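Entry type: protein chain
Record version: 2
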Amino acid sequence: MIKIKIFVLFLVIGLSQNSYSQFGVAHEIGVIAGRIELRSDYGQRDNTKNNLENQGFGIAVVDYMNFSYTDNVNDYFKEHFKVRSELSYNKASLKHYGEWVERNTPGSQRLAAMRGSTQLINLGMQLEYNFKHIHDFENTIGSFGPYISLGPQISYYTATATSTLGDMGDPSVTPVKYLVPSDGRPHGYSNESKAVFSATINIGTRYKLTSMSDLIFDMRAQYFSSDWVDGLNPNKDLFTENKQNDWLTFVGLGYILYLEH
């Protein structure tokens, strides 16, 4: 069902892009791949090892609508703005790190035995601002084109929470904070697949490789409307350290090809 929905969305995007091309809107397509870091309920907050270890990979297919060759929009807009559409896939494996798993207690051993996995499919659009005039960048091979972009995405996640000690939900296996009901679930963990909204901000730069292609360095922060994306969400009324929803960062490199000029 999800595959059908994604196909329909891209069909709609493709049809709309075909109609835009008749008005002089150029298109650029590309692939960006890199590492993600999921900031979640796994591990100690602001712990360096926790942040470095709870990583995964991401890959994105992107399409840009370039207005710089049309006469139907404001000169400033067409020289600085593009519309970016993106379909991406992310996956991360998760564990608890930090002082609470380093102690020699039954509770620490249960925390250390927990394992998590999250897979994400994201689909969305952004409005991108280019600091350099788009035409100036396109006409200068070897130049850099820094940008910033903002936009919403819909994200479909599949999260699992397990333990090397046995079945989650067993009091001898599961830490107490994850046995307490939370946010409509029977426990503070959940193996589930759901759709959520997210807000994204990207910063990065392009490098003009040839007249019809660019290299791109892209960094993204993505904040989700849910705290269940990692499969954990301890009851916020009882465990006040659980302060915010899940979010991730992405750093990647990619290649952009101009379809029209």
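Comment: Residues 2-21 form the longest helix (20 residues).
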